[in-house]
Design brief:
The chain is an all-alpha fold. Helix content is 61%, strand content 1%. The protein is built from eleven helices and two strands. It has a two-stranded parallel ribbon.
Length: 290
């Protein structure tokens, strides 16, 4: 029987896989425990589903017995991503995201699609240029920016979020462990280097580290069992503050124009038949009043 070491697995690769798996389990558990998906970005979860479906196309032609560890985890990542989307759209209340967030998600996806073939040509040349390689490159680029709609939502929402520090730690450390895995493989006997995964893995880790600093250093915690990251908190980070600051003026104008939106929770269900979350938060908490 072949060992994990035979497949170029090291401790950082295994820790990365476990961290990623645990982060998915934590998010699913948190949604069920709170009976709400408030503060979780549906756009980010959709982008994650695109990432895993485009990355794991080899499931169609690779035997499960080749590397059972990989086969099981690939199925779990794809299945759990769609399960979270179903929970958010069919089962539990969620925060409605603004049009700007959907545009940001579209830009992330469109930019990744445009950049993938170019970067693959630059780093891999023509002899590695095929559909599967392009889709894998797309997944690496897209995953590095998937978190942006989530960061924007956490800034804009005024309700508690089911996302907690355990989810952030496990999700952020997953990519950090993978970076260490690439470094070990490069400086070890294998001398293997994957430039695309390393570059965009570093970008992704930087976003998570910056947001983690904002999350843990925030000065206010609003409402029970949940925290809100606002403009003052975001100013403590470097990357997130630059991404979010461009919409400050428009949001302030909207708040001035709609003074009745100061306490939207008191309005009850909207015309769309919104339900209330376990903590008394409306599914349409961030929508404009009808």
């Amino acid at each position: 029987m072949l060992s994990l070491h035979h497949y170029h697995f090291n401790v950082f690769r295994i820790l990365g896989d476990l961290s990623h798996t645990v982060s998915k389990c934590i998010l699913i558990w948190a949604i069920h425990a709170n009976k709400s998906a408030e503060g979780v970005s549906l756009i980010t979860q959709i982008l994650y589903a695109v990432v895993f479906c485009s990355r794991y196309l080899d499931l169609f032609w690779t035997s499960p017995s080749h590397i059972p560890w990989n086969f099981v985890l690939k199925l779990f990542y794809i299945g759990s991503s769609f399960y979270i989307i179903i929970l958010m759209t069919r089962i539990y209340a969620r925060t409605r995201e603004k049009e700007k967030a959907w545009k940001l998600g579209s830009f992330c996806l469109g930019g990744s699609v445009a950049a993938a073939p170019l970067l693959l040509l630059i780093f891999k040349k023509w002899h590695h240029y095929d559909f599967h390689s392009v889709m894998w490159t797309l997944s690496e680029i897209l995953e590095s920016v998937c978190v942006l709609p989530q960061l924007v939502l956490l800034r804009q929402t005024s309700v508690p979020t089911v996302i907690d520090s355990f989810y952030l730690v496990t999700l952020g450390s997953y990519r950090a462990f993978y970076l260490l895995n690439w470094f070990v493989r490069y400086f070890g006997a294998e001398h293997y280097f994957e430039p695309i995964a390393t570059i965009f893995g570093t970008i992704q880790t930087a976003f998570y580290l910056d947001f983690a600093w904002v999350y843990w250093s925030r000065q206010r915690v609003k409402l029970r069992n949940g925290g809100v990251v606002d403009a003052d908190d975001l100013s403590r980070g470097f990357l997130v503050s630059h991404l979010a600051s461009q919409n400050d003026t428009e949001e302030e104008e909207e708040q001035v124009a709609s003074p009745s939106g100061q306490n939207r929770r008191e309005q009850g269900p909207t015309r769309w038949g919104a339900k209330w979350g376990a903590r008394g938060i409306s599914v349409s908490a961030d929508e404009d009043p009808a």
